[in-house]
Amino acid sequence: MIARPEDENFTVIDAFSRVVRLGEGLAQTGRLSDEAMDRALGALRVCADKLRKRKVYLARSVATEACRRASNGDEFIERVRRETGIALNVITAEEEARLAVLGCHILLEDGRGPAVIFDIGGGSTELVLIESGGPVPRILDWQSVPWGVVSLSETVGQEPHDKDGRVARYADMRQLVRDSFSEFAERIEAHRTDELRLLGTSGTVTTLASVHLKLPQYDRKAVDGLIVPAMDMRAISSGLAAMSPAERGQLGCIGTERAELVVAGCAILEAILDIWPADRLGVADRGIREGILRSLMAADAEGQAAQQALHLLRQKESH
User: Fold this and answer.
1) Which of 1, 128, 310, 314 is the most buried (most CB within 10 A)?
2) What is the pTM of this model?
3) What is the DSSP string of 204-270?
């Protein structure tokens, strides 16, 4: 995502996104596969080309759970630097959670008391309890678990051909995620109020929101900032889980690319709703990338202010 700062906000002038499944096979081998690395490098070459053409002067490139866990993560990062010039920085799960919050918190429903923001990725899911108010919300607690749409799908094995088998597999997925978040659920129990607020950022929630709206194809303007009844999202999730991959693939806003992975995302979402049973779910088509942009803008402004202060100091000294 490439943007131009405008006062306190920014205007996106170019963006690119591709599903590469970098963590495919990682759960079984502990390594990034050659095929997955090649797919990721193909996408990163497009990014590098855009950076050069747009003459970007300030950039940050990050890698998350797949590179955190893989034994050959450092080798992949070096290969990316050598072949594309992009210097990937492996960020911690805590930093990933912070950036996701920074990128999407403005879409949180108005209300009093704490709220939960979550980010379902390919290799991990972050849950963050925040106290809203002020330009940046305060993080009260957070948790990251190594269950994303790729890692969870691979751990529970291939989808059965029969409907009953698919439903049972889905229940296993939900239980795995719920168990992983059990300690976090206990910690945040005391923060529950009568009006729980929940905001999700990920391909899962934006895809399910598209299904909710019955969109023939994805439309960011229709989805980003949407508020959906949680019961509707649950119904869509369980319905998709019972379908065959071919049936899911026929839905325009899902397609064959997401047909298999979306079930794991649905299971993670329902486990989150079990933990924080809000009546409504906010949907954000923004997150880490926007969080990085806001961080870069703040750092750039601080740097320019420091340079200006130093310049004034030197002027005074010379006089």
Assistant:
1) 128
2) 0.84
3) HHHHHHHHHTT-SS--HHHHTT-EEEHHHHHHHHHHHHHS-HHHHHTSTTTHHHHTTHHHHHHHHHH
* Spatial CA neighbour of 286 closest among 199, 212, 196: 199
Amino acid at 317: E
Do 312 and 222 touch, CB atoms closer than 8 A? no
- List all residues 6 or more positions away from 254 whose beta carbon is below 8 Å from its beta carbon: 207, 210, 211, 240, 248, 262
Q: What is the pLDDT of residue 253?
A: 86
How do beta strands 197-201 and 138-145 pair? unpaired
Q: With contact defined as beta carbons under 8 Å apart, do 249 and 255 qualify? A: yes
Helix 149-156 crosses helix 163-180 at what angle (to 10 degrees)?
Answer: 120
Q: Mind listing the pLDDT tens digit for each residue in 1-22?
A: 999 988 778 899 999 988 898 9
